[in-house]
Amino acid sequence: MKYIYELHKTMLQQNLILVYEGEFTQEITKSVLAMAERNMESVGEESNIKRKVFNVMVECLQNICKHADEISLEENMKNSAIFMIGKHANEYIITTGNPINNDKVGGLNNKLEQINSLDKEGLKALYKDIIRNGDLSDKGGAGLGFVDMARKSGQKLEFDFQPINDKISFFSLKTTIPRVNTNE
Amino acid sequence: MQIINLEGTEDTPKIILDQSNGIFEISGRSLPEDTAEFYKPVLQWLDAYGSAPKPKTNFTFKLEYFNTASSKLILDILSKLESIPGTTISWYFHEDDEDMEEAGTEFSELVEVPFEFKTY
């Protein structure tokens, strides 16, 4: 039973206000969003910060939903992902972790590095280029999620790929949203 | 012409498209699971409306939040409106919502339709 207390302590140490581990669907997404919103409302979070957190959460959660069925899972492996929100004195930290196929790692890595290399104006230009010239993927994504997360947070996206086996890796993504308004 | 009148939900916007009363409005939250499917009737409605539009069409966007997949469909809607003569856009944003204001500004730069910005 010790793991319960250990998990509880870890959550407190990391200031995690919400952790969800499991399958991701639109219904789960709505529930997670509603819980996080209620949490932010109960502490009287500023509306512009709430909106940015909501925004980043939606893109993270829908990314996982849209790409969950692509994974080449081996038998007995569960297609589960993790979503967490940490609330600190000066920032919210939104993290996701989900398995992805190894053949997606290179492209994803390049896309995230490209986004991180751009400043505010560069991100705006990239957003406009994609929205003008891109089509919705067969998954229904606009290819704008990461760009939008970088724009709304005003911070670099942190990411990592941990190999699981020769077919899949674990993709971790961390977005930081300052609680002090950086637009001012 | 048929009226589209959809109640908003926690992940889909309220939509009213009513030619005879001159109401064209999308408001609330837009993060549907399948964005293209959700907005398909709206785009089809606009195609039909575009063949015999009113002399003036004021289309209102009063969105609290939309996801990136919806932003692509909003641009598709704006592109349809672009080809309807006499169209203007009223883009509402909450007075402290700079991101929604900026989103409207960016859309206004992507299409040749006059935008009027309003706060609520």
In N-to-C order, the SSE pattern of chain B is EEEHEHEHE
Largest interface: A-B, 30 and 22 residues
Largest sheet of chain A: 5 strands, antiparallel
Count of spatially separate domains of chain B: 1
Q: If you consult CATH, what is the topology of chain B?
A: Transcription Regulator spoIIAA
The class by helix and strand makeup of chain A works out as alpha+beta
Name the quaternary structure.
heterodimer
Distance between the termini of chain B: 30 Å
* Rg measurement of chain B, Å: 13 Å
CATH superfamily of chain A: Histidine kinase-like ATPase, C-terminal domain
CATH topology-level name of chain A: Heat Shock Protein 90
* Biggest sheet record of chain B: 6 strands, mixed
Helix content range of chain A: 40-55%
Per CATH, the class of chain B reads Alpha Beta
Domain SiaC family regulatory phosphoprotein (chain B): 7-119
Protein name (chain B): DUF1987 domain-containing protein
InterPro entries (chain B): SiaC (IPR018530)
Protein name (chain A): SiaB family protein kinase
Summarize the structure.
Chain A contains 6 helices and 5 strands; from the N terminus they run H-E-H-H-E-E-H-H-H-E-E. Chain A is α+β, with helices and mostly antiparallel strands and 184 residues long. Chain B has one domain: Transcription Regulator spoIIAA, CATH 3.30.750.
Describe the structure.
Chain B: Residues 7-119 form the SiaC family regulatory phosphoprotein domain. Chain B: InterPro entries: SiaC. Chain B: This is DUF1987 domain-containing protein. The complex is a heterodimer of chains A (184) and B (120). Helices cover 46% and strands 23% of the residues of chain A. Chain A is built from six helices and five strands. Chain A is globular and about 50 Å long. Chain A has helices at 2-13, 26-42, 47-67, 105-116, 120-133, 145-153, and strands spanning 16-22, 81-87, 91-101, 158-163, 168-178. Chain A starts with a helix and ends in a 6-residue tail after the last strand. Chain A has a single domain, classed as Heat Shock Protein 90 (2-Layer Sandwich). In chain A, 26% of the residues are buried. With 184 residues, chain A is an alpha+beta fold. With 120 residues, chain B is α/β, with parallel strands linked by helices. Chain B has a single domain (25-119), classed as 2-Layer Sandwich (Transcription Regulator spoIIAA). Chain B is built from three helices and six strands; from the N terminus they run βββαβαβαβ. Chain B has helices spanning 35-51, 68-82, 98-110; strands spanning 4-6, 14-18, 23-30, 57-66, 87-93, 115-119. The longest helix of chain B has 17 residues, at 35-51. Chain B starts with a strand and ends with a strand. In chain B, 34% of the residues are buried. Classes of the chains: A alpha+beta (184), B alpha/beta (120). Chains A and B meet through helix 2, helix 3, helix 5 and helix 6 of A and helix 2 and helix 3 of B.
